[in-house]
Design goal:
3 domains; Type Iii Antifreeze Protein Isoform Hplc 12; alpha/beta; 462 residues
Length: 462
């Protein structure tokens, strides 16, 4: 596709605001300085000083940045051609913006800013999967009712995977599995026997015997790898969250609520991520799945990228493609198509331009809450425990993620993971028990709760 042609109808740069100037927001600001069709010179964070720091770090001169904590000062700075830093989006609602890019990663704050953007008549690029996992389909519906677009963004895996899935569908490929690699590879050193992942290193000299798949039953090797790497995290909340967003857009669901998450070399993906009847791990075709990329230090990374495994229907064609280096299973029945990248804010402008310039979303046409991301206690949690969300992965201690069928909120239903984040338990939760709405003290006046109630009314009202 020629992107110049695709975006040729956009006559002037899209005016965007980024909310959240952390890793994603900073990269969006940085690339925005170089993207001809994008004008992004206003940003929001918990304090304006955080924004100023991010802006100066990417090369914007301090005398070109104004801290504005009133709508009037922000409008003046805009007219003066300056960059604007503020601590609240409310100060920017009077600017001639086209779209707000919400990237706080905070469930409640993100929900507040998302609704504020739509209420102000701006398109919404929703980066925070924490928000999307609780109320994404509802926000998309709300946007359509207002004649606006809510979109995920290229640069994050959900949008990229939705694009790859729909590409395969348009081309008529039979999708056996679709998903992503975990954020961090499992890198093995054959000389020292050390396995490293995300800064953690464990000694696994015995892992050499699991490097190649067992020819008779490769699934035994997969089990052995997982057991050997038990000291390394093998399931992360963000991966589950991203797959839930993809499910809302495509209707695809995982094989199991916990996923299989095998540790695989890239060449093994089309061998194992297929039905059990073909020697794989899936109960059926057409499933979402995750895997950890296993490699040596000098081998290419999957870079947390996305993939589809497709059926090979014409043997001669796929034999030719295998000879050209494509990743095809040994029996040439399945093949791996993948995008080994997710460039965060550096490529998010594609989705921003689509939404604000073309009026289309890079996500689902009509996303639906097919699944809920919920939590299960991994240890006994007494009443009074605060389910504090923290860390890089925005996890909750002693709570594991699962994906279950989507449903309206109810006291006896598993609660959305990020709806209960930072809430207090009102009663004991046993080990292995889902955390339900009735187990937690939830502020029903919060924007996130109100948006979820709206979503439930739209999709689950009888």
């Amino acid at each position: 596709m020629n992107f110049h042609t695709y975006f040729s109808s956009i006559a002037k740069p899209v005016n965007a605001c980024i909310v959240g100037s952390g890793g994603f927001g900073r990269s969006f600001l940085a690339q925005g300085m170089r993207t001809p069709l994008l004008n992004c010179r206003v940003a929001v964070d918990v304090s304006a000083e955080v924004v100023v720091h991010a802006m100066t770090q990417i090369g914007i001169a301090e005398d070109q940045i104004r801290v504005c904590e009133t709508p009037e000062s922000a409008l003046q700075a805009w007219h003066d051609g300056c960059y604007v830093a503020t601590s609240d989006l409310v100060n920017l609602l009077g600017l001639p913006l086209d779209i707000v890019v919400e990237a706080t990663g905070n469930p409640e704050a993100g929900a507040r800013y998302a609704k504020m953007a739509l209420d102000a008549g701006f398109h919404l690029a929703l980066v925070s999967k924490e928000v999307d996992s609780v109320v994404g389909p509802g926000l998309a519906h709300m946007a359509r009712q207002k004649g606006l677009v809510m979109t995920p963004v290229d640069g994050d895996q959900p949008s990229l995977l939705i694009g790859l899935i729909t590409w395969a569908q348009v081309m008529g490929f039979e999708i056996i599995a679709a998903g992503k690699a975990s954020e961090y590879d499992f890198v093995y050193d054959h000389e020292t026997g050390a396995m490293s992942s995300n800064g953690m290193v464990v000694g696994l000299p015995m892992f050499k015997s699991f490097w190649s798949l067992d020819a008779e039953d490769p699934r035994t090797t997969i089990k052995a790898r997982a057991k050997a790497c038990h000291q390394l995290p093998q399931r992360a909340v963000p991966d589950f969250c991203e797959m839930q967003v993809v499910s809302s857009a495509t209707g695809f669901v995982p094989d199991t609520p916990e996923f299989h998450v095998p540790i695989l070399r890239i060449s093994e993906v089309p061998e194992l991520l297929r039905p059990v009847s073909e020697g794989g791990v899936l109960a059926a075709s057409g499933k979402l799945e995750l895997f950890h990329c296993l490699r040596k230090a000098d081998e290419l990374s999957f870079a947390g990228g996305v993939f589809v495994v497709i059926r090979c229907h014409d043997a001669a064609t796929w034999s030719l493609l295998a000879g050209k280096g494509h990743v095809v299973s040994d029996d040439q029945k399945t093949a791996l198509m993948y995008i080994p990248r997710h460039l965060l804010g550096l490529e998010a402008a594609i989705s921003v331009l689509e939404a604000a310039g073309l009026g289309v979303s890079s996500g689902g046409v009509d996303p639906k809450p097919t699944l809920d991301l919920v939590g299960k206690a991994t240890e006994f949690l007494p009443a009074g425990t605060v389910l504090k969300m923290g860390g890089h992965h925005h996890s909750i201690e002693k709570v594991s993620p699962l994906l279950v069928e989507g449903a309206a909120l109810a006291d006896d239903r598993p609660a959305p993971f990020y709806l209960i984040a930072n809430c207090r338990l009102s009663r004991d939760v046993r080990k292995g028990q889902f955390i339900c709405i009735g187990d937690v003290e939830i502020d029903t006046s919060s924007v996130l709760f109100q948006l979820r109630s709206y979503q439930d009314t739209v999709f689950f009202a009888s």
